[in-house]
Design brief:
The complex is a heterodimer of chains A (523) and B (615). Chain A has 523 residues and is mainly α. Chain A has one domain. Helices cover 76% and strands 2% of the residues of chain A. Chain A is built from 24 helices and 2 strands. Chain A has a two-stranded antiparallel sheet. In chain A, helix 15 crosses helix 23. The longest helix of chain A has 32 residues. The N and C termini of chain A lie far apart (45 Å). The relative contact order of chain A is 0.10. With 615 residues, chain B is mainly α. Among the domains of chain B are: 215 residues, no CATH class; 68 residues. In chain B, strand 1 and strand 2 form a beta hairpin. In chain B, helix 3 packs antiparallel against helix 10 and helix 5 packs antiparallel against helix 6. Classes of the chains: A mainly alpha (523), B mainly alpha (615). Chains A and B meet through helix 5, helix 6, helix 13, helix 15 and helix 18 of A and strand 1, helix 5, helix 6, helix 25 and helix 26 of B.
């Protein structure tokens, strides 16, 4: 019970901090405000890791650290129902890690109206922690929106060029996606006849009485495209690079790093295990559109000259791996997707962070005008090069395992091997744009004007705050890259549990069995 | 020390060294060389203790990752082949690290250099010790990364920028096939463990697949710079010379051959045939290219390519032991040659064109003599190590296919030709530039490794005397050759042709090029031939064309489609439509974010009211 409240506190601590910053902190640069901010960033991180070590993987059926609080919506089956399982735990820790990094960086940044900025970031952080800690579907969705709204506001206030248009486009797009997925979730709830609007009840209800294939197809379509839009599924991705290009650092880190994973998490935790027939019917589209993300967007990334846009597009591209991984409908594929989500979240947040650091040294995001960072800031160059290499799947970093496991899962069945041959081209494409960026930014000789500007502004190499924020992320990437078992063992247990209960494995015999069982039931 | 501790410390010592050097911070410049040197000595001692105590082979394995029924392992396999590689790598690395202390003494970024070299040693040891293909792939990419880092050492130079990118990307192209090959192997055999693969393919040969074999050797083609992915190796010479010696001559590029030797039992005869022919082609092709180069390091780079071709060819003919033999002898004499070139470049104030050198023999006698020893070993002169391995390659080739045999003999002639050209022009005659005339012998920290390596370049061919029973597979392959029917006749014939090749090669190059020339006589007398050789079959140009005229326009076109059509017309158009429909709600929706927020909460409230049964 104590740990359940610890779980709850990871949500309300940032929320309270956010409120205090919004309402009563005038100057963030005072010691008290900074201490408060640090507490708000560090505590959820520490708690998340405590929960990790207290996690009991032998509890197969239930979630760990369950907490059920009444909300006044009992008649709808809605409770504030929190808990963690092997799928949400890695993402929960991802969210705490990226949150810590983003908040510490923001606390010591020079943004205008810093109290508002930090406050909104805290609200966003709180929503993120809530999203992955929710078992209840209403709150799962609610916390997502809770984190999404500050994103829009932050783009509107601190965004870059054309921020109003970008924020509007992003709002329309993401609201549409969220709406579709909400309709899907409600339809699923309503059709399943479950007693409560949460994942456990839904699963039990669906195991007892699977819903018809037609309905499954339709509901899955809603969830697939709804969640897909939120994850920048090709061709619904156009909001992402522009949005991230305009978003301030903290918002970009938290959104691209964590919030965006909401959609894939929904597919992984809900749509695919609960709607086996529906996901099988849409399986081809998962693979095809995922390939669109990898190949088409991969090539588009090659053409980018703006560093932030490039990172934005590359993030869209990497989501393609996740979609094709889901398209294998195997435990292996799902495990790979999970690892990829965590890895990608850490690495894209790191890249957005570093891109801001680089901007400070060159006063531009245009890569053609950069060069010679190795001379100006050797440490920053090393971090940037490692971050890029991590994101293009260098072994030793987490991303490698995500991509490798997904590729392996694709190779299992003859019917998905063609996807493997095409998707693996992504490792070449990403190497080209990644190294080109490192080449243009780090290598070469710095322009005289840049050197002068740097000496005048005394920016120098990375300061301790930049180093701290980057090290948290890079260190996590290394940790998972070297020792993937840290998450994979727990996830494996949960995946085996939820994926085998629904008998959903792409192996034809499994699907056959499943259909057979259902037919007998109808008789 | 038990074997496992020994193995693990051998693997992690270089990694620790690398981290330590980075952690030194401001003191890097001062302490990095000594730390790296101590670590190289430590690695050599650890290898020595290990080899002394090594039983026939050791194998350890741990689970690394598991999802569902699929499990992936990390593990160590050290058998005779690995032990032989390990001994070579530790010795060569120590020599090269020592040499680097002198060569890099003026460099501002010594810390980065030595940390990179140590990290490379970690990755290379990882490849040697890996017990399964996935782990090999992992360290395979890591050697690629260290190579990228070290080629880009002089990062201010445009040349280093493009060369390091090229090396990594071209290797990735090879790894693309390799990765798919590993995955298909995993599903075909149910494992990627090397020992299990060998058992499985022995029990059920029908599991072997030519398709998978071709995919797997893509990795080799990339890493060992075989045609058509050879383009990165000559450019990689932009890195510091000790790096070229260690990574791009002695060890990393040979890792491709090592991989082949590791997996030879799952390669079908078609794959082997392909390797034999493509190896022979590279041996000749690279030899031709070497004639049109004037940069001393690039000449050696093409020579490395050509020798890798020899190794590949003999492997394809079914003699993996002899491929290993040539790999080992080549590692020593080529490391020697590169370090010698490094000494020359260092003495000539970073002048690399052979036509601006000349007459260095008198000024740098130790370097010159050791360099000539290396050359003689490379040309396969009797008594030097290269003779033994090249001789057995030619004998085996003669038995395998007489066309390939004559090609390879011709290749040996070319080797002597381009190396003769280099020797005569660089070391004899008169100095052709200010830098060359003021050159003098390098310091002891650089000459001692040269002398050590020349000892190896002479004697390492006598594989019967190798300690700890190293090179058992070499012995068995050589035995096989010695028992061929008509061995004596063949050997006599090979000996005559092989010796003729180097005598004629060195002689003709002396007559044609002359001592210490300042111009390329081939270019003067036969400009068309020279231009053709300089063109190197235009593979580089072809790739450049692809990048500039196909990949770039396609990327830009797609970017345009994405920007204008998808985003601009469909999405904005769609949004416009929504906007038109929304005119009626104008009062409610004015496109301000705060309003959206407001409406979100209004919606939430309604939902709530519905929930608590208010309506």
């Amino acid at each position: 019970m104590m740990y359940s409240h610890l779980l709850f506190s990871t949500i309300w601590i940032p929320f309270i901090c956010g409120l205090i910053f919004l309402v009563s902190v005038k100057d963030v640069k005072t010691l008290g405000a900074r201490l408060l901010g640090l507490c708000g960033g560090v505590l959820p991180f520490v708690f998340a890791w405590i929960l990790y070590f207290k996690y009991d993987a032998s509890l197969l059926e239930a979630y760990n650290f369950e907490l059920i609080l009444p909300t006044g919506l009992e008649s709808l089956g809605i409770f504030l129902h929190l808990g963690l399982n092997g799928i949400s735990l890695p993402l929960f820790i991802l969210s705490a890690t990226v949150g810590l990094s983003a908040i510490v960086y923001a606390l010591f940044s020079n943004a205008e109206r810093l109290n508002l900025y930090v406050g909104l970031l805290f609200i966003m952080f709180s929503g993120l922690m809530g999203t992955f800690a929710s078992v209840d579907l209403f709150f799962f969705y609610f916390f997502h929106e809770f984190a999404l709204i500050p994103t829009f506001i932050m783009i509107m206030i601190w965004g870059g060029v054309a921020r109003h248009a970008v924020a509007l486009e992003m709002t329309i797009y993401l609201t549409l996606g969220a709406l579709l997925s909400l309709i899907g979730l409600i339809a699923l709830y309503q059709q399943s006849g479950a007693e409560a609007f949460n994942m456990i009840a839904l699963k039990d209800a669906l195991l007892e009485q699977p819903i018809s294939e037609v309905l499954q197809n339709n509901i899955f379509a809603l969830l697939f495209f709804g969640f897909g839009i939120l994850v920048s599924l090709f061709p619904f991705h156009t909001w992402a690079p522009k949005g991230y290009g305009a978003a301030p650092t903290g918002a970009a880190m938290l959104h691209a790093g964590v919030l965006k994973k909401f959609g894939l998490y929904g597919l992984l935790q809900i749509a695919i295990p609960f709607l086996p027939a529906g996901s099988e019917a849409w399986g081809f589209w998962l693979l095809l559109l995922g390939l669109g993300n990898i190949l088409v967007i991969g090539l588009v990334t090659l053409a980018q000259k703006d560093l932030k846009q490039m990172i934005g597009y590359s993030s869209v591209m990497h989501m393609g791996y996740a979609f094709i991984g889901l398209g294998t409908f195997s435990i292996l594929g799902a495990g790979g997707v999970l690892l990829l989500l965590v890895a990608h979240g850490l690495s894209v947040a790191l890249l957005f962070l570093l891109s801001t650091c680089i901007y400070k040294r060159f006063s531009t995001f245009n890569m053609d005008e950069m060069g010679g960072l190795g001379q100006i800031a050797p440490n920053l160059s090393a971090f940037f090069a490692l971050a890029i290499l991590a994101s293009i799947g260098l072994p030793g970093f987490a991303n490698f395992w995500g991509e490798f496991i997904i590729f392996t899962a694709l190779g299992e069945s003859e019917s998905t091997r063609w996807v493997l041959y095409l998707a693996a081209l992504g490792i070449i494409i990403s190497a080209v744009y990644g190294l080109r960026a490192v080449g243009n930014i780090v290598f070469g000789v710095a322009k005289e004007s840049v050197i002068q500007a740097n000496t005048a502004s005394k920016v120098g190499d990375m300061n301790p705050i930049e180093k701290f924020s980057a090290t948290v992320l890079l260190g996590s990437l290394l940790l998972i890259g070297v020792y993937p078992k840290i998450f994979s063992d727990y996830s494996n247990k949960t995946l085996q549990n939820i994926y085998s209960d629904t008998s959903l494995l792409l192996n034809d015999e499994y699907v056959g069995d499943f259909k057979l069982e259902r037919d007998t039931e109808y008789e | 020390m038990d074997i496992l501790t020994n193995l693990l410390s051998l693997l992690f010592l270089p990694l620790g060294t690398s981290i330590l050097i980075i952690a030194l911070g401001k003191h890097r410049k001062k302490y990095a060389p000594i730390v790296a040197f101590m670590s190289a000595i430590g690695a050599l001692s650890l290898s020595y203790i290990l080899l002394k105590n090594l039983p026939e082979s050791v194998h350890y394995s741990w689970e690394w990752l598991a999802f569902g029924d699929s499990k992936f392992y990390i593990g160590i396999l050290l058998d005779n082949i690995g032990a032989t590689m390990l001994a070579m790598v530790s010795i060569v690395a120590l020599c090269i690290v020592t040499f680097s202390i002198g060569y890099m003494s003026d460099d501002a970024a010594k810390g980065r250099f030595f940390a990179g070299v140590a990290f490379f040693m970690f990755s290379m040891t990882g490849i040697i010790l890996a017990d399964n293909l996935i782990m090999i792939f992992l360290f395979w990419e890591l050697v690629g990364f260290s190579s990228y880092l070290l080629i880009g050492h002089y990062f201010q130079k445009e040349e280093a920028k493009s060369a390091s990118q090229k090396a990594f990307i071209v290797n990735r192209i090879g790894d693309f096939g390799f990765l798919i090959g590993i995955i298909l192997t995993y599903w075909q055999f149910g494992t990627t463990n090397i020992e299990l693969l060998s058992i499985q393919s022995g029990i059920d040969p029908s599991l072997m697949s030519t398709f998978i074999g071709f995919l797997l050797i893509c990795g080799f083609i990339g890493k060992s710079a075989q045609f058509p992915l050879h383009v990165w190796l000559p450019d990689a010479m932009a890195g510091p010379t000790p790096v070229s010696a260690l990574i791009h001559a002695a060890t990393m590029v040979a890792a491709g051959i090592y991989l082949l030797i590791r997996i030879d039992f799952i390669l079908t005869s078609q794959v082997l045939l392909f390797i034999a022919y493509s190896g022979t082609f590279v041996a000749l092709f690279a030899g031709f290219c070497a004639f049109a180069q004037d940069d001393i390091k690039r000449i050696l780079a093409y020579s490395t390519l050509s020798q890798l071709g020899y190794m590949a060819a003999i492997f394809g003919m079914g003699y993996s032991g002899i491929a290993l033999f040539h790999l080992i002898t080549h590692a020593f004499f080529k490391a020697l040659l590169f370090l010698g070139a490094g000494a020359v470049i260092h003495a000539c104030h970073h002048e690399q064109s052979i036509f601006k050198m000349g007459g260095l023999f008198k000024k740098m006698p130790i370097t010159s003599i050791t360099f000539i020893i290396g050359t003689l070993a490379l040309c396969g002169v009797y008594g030097f190590s290269g003779f033994y391995s090249k001789d057995s390659i030619l004998i085996a080739a003669n038995d395998y296919n007489s066309t390939l045999f004559y090609f390879l003999v011709f290749g040996a002639f070319m080797t002597a030709g381009y190396m003769g050209r280099l020797i005569w022009i660089v070391f004899f005659g008169k100095a052709n530039s200010e830098a060359a005339s003021s050159a003098h012998e390098v310091s002891a920290v650089m000459t001692v490794p040269l002398i050590l390596l020349s000892g190896f370049a002479i004697f390492v061919g006598l594989n019967a005397y190798w300690p700890f029973g190293l090179g058992a597979s070499i012995v068995s392959d050589l035995d096989h050759l010695h028992h061929l029917s008509g061995y004596k006749e063949i050997h006599k014939w090979v000996l005559i042709l092989g010796s003729a090749a180097w005598i004629v090669g060195l002689g003709v190059s002396l007559i044609f090029y002359g001592k210490g020339s300042s111009e390329d006589r081939l270019q003067l007398k036969f400009p068309k031939v020279f231009a053709f050789l300089k063109g190197r079959l235009w593979v580089d140009e072809l790739y450049q064309y692809y990048v500039n005229h196909i990949q770039k326009p396609v990327a830009e076109f797609l970017s345009f489609v994405d920007e204008v059509i998808l985003r601009g017309i469909i999405v904005r158009g769609g949004a416009g439509l929504v906007g038109v429909l929304g005119v009626g709600f104008r009062l409610l929706q004015v496109g301000k974010i705060n309003n959206y927020v407001l409406w979100f909460f209004v919606g939430l409230l309604l939902f709530w009211l519905y929930g608590i049964d208010l309506f």
